[in-house]
Design brief:
- The complex is a heterodimer.
- Chain A is of the alpha/beta class.
- Chain A has helices at residues 63-70, 93-98, 116-129, 144-156, 172-184, 202-218, 229-235, 253-257, 260-267, and strands spanning 23-34, 37-48, 52-56, 78-83, 86-87, 101-104, 190-194, 221-225, 238-243, 246-251.
- Chain A has two domains: 13-100 and 193-266, Rossmann fold, CATH 3.40.50.300; 110-187, no CATH class.
- Chain A is built from nine helices and ten strands.
- In chain A, a hairpin with a 2-residue loop joins strand 1 (23-34) and strand 2.
- Chain A is globular and about 55 Å long.
- The N and C termini of chain A lie far apart (38 Å).
- By secondary structure, chain B is mainly α.
- Chain B has a single domain (2-287), classed as ABC transporter involved in vitamin B12 uptake, BtuC (Orthogonal Bundle).
- Chain B is built from 18 helices and four strands.
- Chain B has helices spanning 7-21, 23-26, 35-58, 66-82, 87-109, 114-133, 137-140, 166-170, 190-212, 215-231, 237-262, 273-286, 293-308, 313-319, 325-335, 343-357, 361-389, 392-395; strands spanning 146-147, 182-183, 186-187, 265-266.
- In chain B, strands 1-4 form a two-stranded antiparallel ribbon.
- In chain B, helix 4 packs parallel to helix 6.
- Chain B is globular and about 85 Å long.
Chain lengths: 272, 396
Amino acid sequence: MSVVELTNSDAAGRGFTSGIPDKVLHIDDVHKSFAGLHALSDVDLDVRQGETHAIIGPNGAGKSTLLNVCVGRIKPDRGAVIFDGDTLTGKSPHEINQLGVARVFQTPEVFLDLTVLENVMVPALSKRDGHFKLNPFSAIAGETSIRNEAEEVIVNVGLKNHVHAVASSLSRGDKRRLELAMGLIQRPKLLLLDEPTAGMARHDTNATIDLLKQIKEGGMTKVIIEHDMHVVFSLADRITVLAGGRIIAQGSPEEIKNNPKVKEAYLGEEQV
Amino acid sequence: MLRTLSRSDWLLMAIFTAIVVTLPWTMQPIGAAYPDLLQKFAIYGIFAIGFNILFGLTGYLSFGHAAFLGVGSYAAVWSFKLLTMNVLPALAFSVLIAGVFAFLIGYVSLRRSGIYFSILTLAFAQMSYNLAYSVLTPITNGETGLQTRAIRQSAEISLRDGDIRIIDQALGIQEFGVPITNLFGMKMSGYPGFYFCAVMLIVCFFVALCISRSNFGMMLKAIKSNQNRLNYTGIHTRPYLIAAFVISGMYAGLAGSLLAITDPIAGAERMQWTASGEVVLMTILGGVGTLVGPVLGAGLIKYAEQKVSSWNEGILNSAFSFLPDGAQAFFVELFSFFVGEGWHLTLGFMFMVIVIFLPGGLMEGFRRIGRAFNRARRSEGGRTTVAANTPAQERG
């Protein structure tokens, strides 16, 4: 299986009624404040089926808060997140994942005591068996198809030589690759990536861009939070710009590049 | 499952079985080859293996597992009093009751993690202990402890003072003197009792091995490694934790029933916090998260309890008789704090040494020895190779 094939089999999606055709994620008037500080205000956002949607903004803009609201880590004060017809607001993280939303964390959150292969097999088993299955006599060694699938994903993200290494022994960059593999193995309908190239050397960043481009060709919907504009403009179909918890601009990369508000608030003339 | 266990797993099972079965012979040189102690090795080995399923795999440290040991014992004695002196219904009854009890305690305690979970389990165990001593006296017989009696002749005699054993009576089984537990007529005292416990230990070890190698086991290890991440991977961790807690409680219930089978009396002291602490020590001494470690830890502690607690000044005097009088008196005086009633001091000292120098317990010690041995063998092999490749005139 190639990376291109590591895509949601339901990629066509059923979408749901709205003004925007085939939108898979709808963030409706979300508001969140912490001790009086407005982290998110009146955020409305639609992500279309199969697109790569980048969310950018300066530090403290509310990007990570928005992602946390999407995966159930933070409950919004107001508004709702609707994914493929299901309201995610109020659901727990495992329920949201079972609906087809996977997250790749900014700081690598892997199972440090398990091997790379086991790290990737865990989400694969979760996808197959659901959120709980009492199977104390079902041996891991007998899971040949899941093992093969996990090994292929591991090879695709460039960890071929670390399949049986314990995750704690990996470098930070390799842990990020492992994070990505853990997300990809589930073939989610929506993949949320929180700064997938943070801390990577340029060579590794370009390799990750190539990998994500291959997935893009497969039609998986992705939302990427990223500071590196090289990554954003290499991958994004559409971009949303947040500043001070509010959306200040939305559009194609070209539109964002030429948006004076964005230039003023975030990008700066010379960066664009 | 049986087909998917690796060759090394089967080898481990075979070695473990051989060691357990031959204990009556192999323990002779250290004076531990008598049924009472061997039964305790097996029973507390089961207790520690079960505890390790929770603590070793998920990292959740329970300080209340003695409650399930006590419940298992009471359930077994009630089975002897009400149903039959045959041990099989007692085993089933104990495991079932301990499982239900573990579910109730686990359901509440597992709402919290870390130190709060540990304190909650400790509180539940102490509540159980105190209840057994006070309001539940009609069931537990309080301080006296619950024990089997002869079959009562009149319904006016309370069940605590006279048993009914419905199944035995229905089958017309005659009793003479003190009722003795049996397995279809085979008395469960002495070596038959040990071998019965040994079979249970081997079965329990096999089940723990299967759990450790299963998808379920991998999820438990993932909980220990990063529970938060597992939630975002689509796994609802709480049912997994409750299942591990219940399985672990059932192991403790089984151990409790075996205590009652080999000595049909159940007292509340089995539920005391010190008993809960003991299984923690056994697991840490042997090696948390390992399969064999907890059994080794249980054996070591029970051996120390039986042996060191029986030593007295006379034994110390003869042990240090080779020293001059003054030195002998000094060492006897010094070591007398660590033997007899002071054996807990020996246990504490042993625990400190192992935790400081071998945080992974005895199993880590064995691994280190194995690695050192391999290094020595490799370097010797290297020297041999160099010597073989060196021309004769250079070798001299």
